[in-house]
Amino acid sequence: MENRKTKAAGKTLSEDRIGILVDTTVCAGCLHCEMACHNAHFSPSLSTNDFSDPAVFRNYRRPDDKALTVVNEFPNQKNPLLPVYVKIQCMHCEKPACVSACIVGAIKKKRRRQRSVEQ
Ligand code: SF4
Ligand code: SF4
Question: Between vectors from CA 49 to CA 47 and to CA 52, what angle results, nearest 5°?
Fold first, then answer.
């Protein structure tokens, strides 16, 4: 049987990686996760100032070859003053920079067979 580790793109990836939970009830739309991912995989020189333009929320975005994670903003029917932010991302990293960068702990990486109940 093949080794439980898979080599891809020069990085060691665990076959245990299955999913990343994003708690949209606490996501603040700060885009720090986008910055951390960008700095980890593309250019390490960008700062929070480069991800502070709210105009980015005008159009729905999908991850692509220049942004492996993106956060979109949606209207909140219950409270128009508090939009809902939904992060879309890959599940590439063994130690995801996007998870470490989250200021409110909205992202949790779970190992295989781990269960969690968000209440
Ligand atoms: S897991 Fe997170 S940091 Fe890693 S490539 Fe995907 S979005 Fe970027
Ligand atoms: S998931 Fe975390 S880091 Fe990303 S926009 Fe939401 S609060 Fe910010």
Answer: 125
Q: Which atom of ligand 2 is nearest to the CA of 85?
A: 6
Residue type (1 letter), 26: V
The answer to whether 76 and 86 are in contact (CB under 8 A) is: no
109 lines ligand 2 (CB under 6 A): no
Q: Is 44 exposed, middle or buried (0-12, 13-18, 19+ CB in 10 A)?
A: exposed
pTM above 0.90, yes or no: no
User: Residue ranges of the domains in the chain?
Assistant: 9-110
Q: Is 9-110 a CATH 3.30.70.20 domain?
A: yes
**What is the per-residue pLDDT across 65-77, written as a single tens digit (0 to 9) for each?**
999 999 999 999 9
Q: Which residue type sits at 106?
A: A
